């Protein structure tokens, strides 16, 4: 007859390198929480918990810039609209926020992760001796052949994303200071240049420019999406809170008395045959 789990087996079940908890003690990555409060800013704490180390000043500045740039894009964004509608349906604020976050998927909210993956592939290929411009041209040609969007480039609303230039400027400053390699910056600009050849320019959007930031910081693609979700949660929270205080109940996607168009069969009698 086999013995059941030991105490060590049980405590190892949820073992973690992130947080140590004991009566009267809380440590984050080995740092007592009382030594961090009031001394370590929130963005640096995010970096500490997710990567295991304290960020440099440049890492903290770039991460904070990327997070601030991604917080909100107005109530027309599905994640925001979803949270606002949920807030009028009698659910708690936490449920409304969760409703908005759960809308963030591959199509709405996933382009940043996809762009980090793309740029990583370009950087790796160029490191093998290939010309970066040629590699970018080939990648863009592949997307066009599949009639697919290049993730991180172009915007359905902005001819030129107002967040692009300022974020790129911060990355360029970090490259000049020798704080980051500049590989992802060059890869992103190469894709942007490839998209413009023979056609109108397709500037990178917030997903593309933050993908450059995250790539330069060494953030893995899936964690980059996590950072976007973390940032957008701020906007989702603000909108859900505002809507919850509006007094409107059960707010749908269309203002009354507008109704969604009907494309089915015309009205017809039911004969029972």
UniProtKB/TrEMBL annotation:
Database matches in Pfam families: Citrate_synt
Keyword Lyase in record: yes
InterPro entries per UniProt: Citrate_synth-like_lrg_a-sub, Citrate_synth-like_sm_a-sub, Citrate_synthase, Citrate_synthase_sf
Entry keyword set: Lyase, Transferase
Gene Ontology molecular function terms on file: citrate synthase activity; lyase activity
Residues covered by region (Disordered): 247-273
Cellular component, GO, one term: cytosol
GO terms, biological process: carbohydrate metabolic process; tricarboxylic acid cycle
Source species, domain of life: Bacteria
Documented EC number(s): 2.3.3.16
Pathway connected to this protein: Carbohydrate metabolism; tricarboxylic acid cycle
NCBIfam families from the UniProt entry: PRK06224.1-1
Family as reported in the entry's similarity comment: Belongs to the citrate synthase family.
Name listed for the protein in its UniProt record: citrate synthase (unknown stereospecificity)
């Amino acid at each position: 007859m086999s013995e059941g789990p030991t105490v060590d087996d049980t405590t190892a079940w949820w073992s973690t390198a992130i947080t140590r908890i004991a009566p009267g003690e809380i440590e984050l990555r080995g740092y007592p929480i009382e030594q961090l409060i009031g001394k370590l800013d929130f963005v640096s704490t995010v970096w500490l918990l997710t990567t295991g180390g304290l960020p440099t000043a440049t890492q903290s500045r770039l991460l904070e810039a990327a997070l601030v740039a991604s917080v909100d894009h107005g109530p027309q964004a599905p994640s925001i609209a979803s949270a606002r509608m949920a807030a009028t349906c009698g659910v708690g604020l936490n449920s409304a926020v969760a409703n908005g976050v759960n809308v963030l998927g591959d199509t709405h909210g996933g382009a940043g992760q996809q762009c980090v993956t793309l740029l990583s592939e370009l950087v790796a290929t160029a490191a093998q001796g290939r010309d970066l411009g040629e590699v970018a041209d080939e990648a863009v040609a592949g997307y066009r052949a599949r009639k697919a969007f290049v993730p991180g480039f172009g915007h359905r609303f902005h001819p030129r994303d107002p967040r692009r230039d300022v974020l790129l400027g911060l990355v360029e400053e970090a490259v000049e200071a020798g704080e980051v390699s500049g590989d992802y910056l060059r890869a992103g600009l190469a894709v942007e240049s490839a998209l413009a050849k023979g056609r109108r320019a397709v500037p990178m959007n917030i997903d593309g420019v933050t993908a450059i930031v995250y790539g330069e910081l060494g953030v893995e693609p899936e964690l980059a999406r996590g950072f976007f979700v973390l940032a957008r949660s701020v906007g989702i929270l603000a909108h859900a809170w505002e809507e919850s205080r509006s007094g409107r109940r059960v707010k749908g996607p269309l203002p009354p008395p507008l109704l969604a168009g009907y494309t089915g069969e015309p009205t017809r009698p039911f004969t029972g045959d």
